Amino acid sequence: MKALVAVKRVIDYNVKIRVKQDNSGVEKENVKMSMNPFDEIAVEEAIRLKEKNLIDEIVVVSIGSDNVQETIRSALAMGADRGILVKTDNELEPLAIAKILKYFVEKEESDITILGKQAIDDDYNQTGQILGGLLNYPQATFASKVIKEDNAMLVTREIDGGLETLKINLPCIITTDLRLNEPRYASLPNIMKAKSKPIDIIELKELNLEITNRLEILEVKAPPERGGSVKMLDNYSELIDVLKNKEGIL
Amino acid sequence: MSCLVIAELENGTPNRPSLAAISASLELESTIDLLVFNPDKIDEIKKIKNVKKIYSFKNKIDNLVAEDLVNCLKQIAANYKYIIAPSGTFSKNFIPRLAANLDLQPVTDIIKIHDKNTFDRPIYAGNAIATVRSHDKTIMLTVRGTAFQPFAQDGGSAEVELLPDLLEGNHSKFINKEITKSERPELSSAKIIVSGGRGVGSKDNFKIIEELADKLNAAIGASRAAVDAGYISNDYQVGQTGKVVAPELYIAVGISGAIQHLAGMKDSKVIVAINKDEDAPIFQVADYGLVGDLFTTIPEITKEI
Ligand SMILES: Cc1cc2nc3c(=O)[nH]c(=O)nc-3n(C[C@H](O)[C@H](O)[C@H](O)COP(=O)(O)OP(=O)(O)OC[C@H]3O[C@@H](n4cnc5c(N)ncnc54)[C@H](O)[C@@H]3O)c2cc1C
User: Fold this and answer.
1) Rounded distance, CA B61 to CA B79, Å?
2) Is the dihedral of CA B137, B140, B145, B146 positive or negative?
3) Among B209, B265, B275, B283, which residue has the most ligand 1 atoms within 8 Å of its CB, making it the best to mutate?
4) Percent helix, strand and coil across chain B, each rounded to 5?
5) Arithmetic mean of pLDDT, A184-209
6) Is the CB of B196 under 6 A from ligand 1?
7) What per-residue confidence (pLDDT) applies to A154?
8) Whole-prediction pTM value?
9) How many CB atoms within 10 Å of residue A29?
10) Which residue from B minimizes the CA distance to A97?
11) Is B243 touching ligand 1 by the criterion CB < 6 Å?
């Protein structure tokens, strides 16, 4: 059994985002980059399945420019077995990314394909579901618990009203939510070991896929600021008073 | 060619986020078609103004899996110029899968419509707003409920088409559901939300939040840290990866104000922060701040109101 995990390099979640002066995007120069936190959870889940001997190999795929190798290396240092970098300098949309991933899911014959539920940069929350649709594989999104049962996966999902459990046959697509697990830190020996794990580097155009972006980003702006500044109050009576008499809410 | 809105229902009629999606849709087209999964109150739904046609099913459909839903929708959806749903975990689950079947790239979570194919959507947890133009032949959108007014005009008389029940596929099966039952208002439609964070300290202590919420007839919210620690269940999480809310009053109690949390509540009309740390970042977005221990302050407020 094989697991394929898709990872994305994004601006670290602790960085304060700044919009570029010319409104063409956000500032990425000299900004700390990390693996998308949901993808770390995806890598961790694959490793846990491997530790339970439920799968034999974990392949990590990432799409982007050369520096994405760093992100793949972090996944290898956590415990993935090998990496694939699909090289392109274009920023691709979820549909395009899913078409590339479909190619590798089929080529690698992945049984369990795990993705983060969303990337914290574009916040789309689409790629896993699109991939499920393209492959016509069953999907379980926003997973908070994953159990293997016979030849299927029992997945608990976070939904609007609470939790839902699905049973999906293999091969399948799973997307991770925050509470699925807590990703491990790579140990120093494992970081060293990861340096010799293989990463295949493939130019996107070599794959001969029909891929075009459908959306055009016209502009990226800073959000409107909240007007005014905070009024600090001395005690709870003042608070009740402003909410009642000034804001007219209570 | 027109616009299909896939609505979610609450007590049989479109919920607030769906009514917001209808408002957004009517900025794009003068009439819309509506798809709902429960025909029980269809006579009421028919009255919504500018709805031409309602698709539903003979029997109420519960516990849908995305695979079956998409198989049913892909034929219907192919005839539309717009396919629109409210943002939420329900639509996030199937809209992209439907898009894959139609070879479309959805624009999710829109907060503003510029013209027929240009929309604003927040990125980076709302720290930037992207204006995007879609070049797809059919435009799939999900609409952020807090960004549009719920549609409230009636006087319509839509025709109804009942679809055959969904066929169940055999690769994905619904097993069970644990739905949080609550007498309190829904997070997405509440006028007031009292939200608790890690500072609340335990599941038992969360009663302090509940008591204040009940006094105010408010919904309860929580930070990720409070949910992770098990003080309250996942569906109360507000933020980048939880629910996005914009009530008239949001009271953040023992919440530090991480950007991922702010992403879910900073459009609230009035924000009150109660925190013992005067430097907590939550005070930077709050309208009113109170520095103090929540264990004394909150019960005092509950008593006084
Ligand atoms: C990918 C990703 C997605 C995320 N998505 C979300 C999301 O959707 N929603 C979300 O909320 N977070 C999210 N987070 C987590 C976020 O970064 C913060 O960790 C989280 O919001 C912190 O929750 P908190 O404010 O309750 O806890 P803390 O940051 O620990 O703050 C606790 C606060 O309580 C105060 N306090 C303690 N005791 C008292 C007392 N007795 N009286 C008064 N005040 C007290 C403290 O001063 C402190 O300010 C996400 C993180 C990541 C990486």
Assistant:
1) 23
2) negative
3) B275
4) 30, 30, 40
5) 97
6) no
7) 98
8) 0.96
9) 5
10) B105
11) no
B258 C-alpha to center of ligand 1: Å?
6
pLDDT number for residue B170 = 87
- CB-based contact A92:A130 (threshold 8 Å): no
Decide if B301 and A239 are in contact by the 8 Å CB cutoff: yes
State yes or no: cis peptide before A171, omega within 30 of 0.
yes
Q: Helices A94-108 & A127-135, crossing angle to 10 degrees?
A: 50
Tokens of B167: 């066929």
How far the first Cα of chain B sits from its last, in Å, is 53
Q: Does A102 touch chain B (CB under 8 A)?
A: no
Q: What is the pLDDT of residues B124-136, one digit of tens each?
A: 999 999 999 999 9
H/E element, A179: none
Looking at this protein, which amino acid is placed at residue B134? S
CB contact under 8 A, B63 and A164: yes
User: Residue A106: pLDDT above 70?
Assistant: yes
What is the Cα–Cα distance from A12 to A36, expressed in whole angstroms? 8
The response to whether residue B17 sits with its C-beta less than 6 Å from ligand 1 reads no
**What is the gyration radius of the CA atoms in chain A, in angstroms?**
21
Name residue A200's beta-bridge partners.
Answer: A84
- The token duo for B176 is 């069970």
- Euclidean distance between CA atoms A47 and A53, whole angstroms: 10
| Cα atoms in the 13 Å half-sphere on the side-chain side of B230 | 1
Element (H, E) at B111: none
Q: Does B103 touch chain A (CB under 8 A)?
A: yes
Exposed / middle / buried, residue B9 (Cβ in 10 Å: 0-12, 13-18, 19+) = middle
B122 Cβ closer than 6 Å to some ligand 1 atom: no
**d(C-alpha B209, C-alpha B192), whole Å:** 13
Question: What is residue B210's three-state secondary structure?
Answer: helix
Contact present, B88 and B17 (Cβ < 8 Å):
yes
E-assigned strand segments in chain B: 3-6, 9-10, 13-14, 32-35, 51-57, 82-86, 107-110, 112-115, 118-123, 128-134, 139-143, 159-163, 172-179, 192-196, 219-222, 249-253, 270-275, 288-291
Q: Evaluate if residue B115 carries a pLDDT over 90.
A: yes
CA–centroid distance, B215 to ligand 1, in Å, is 25
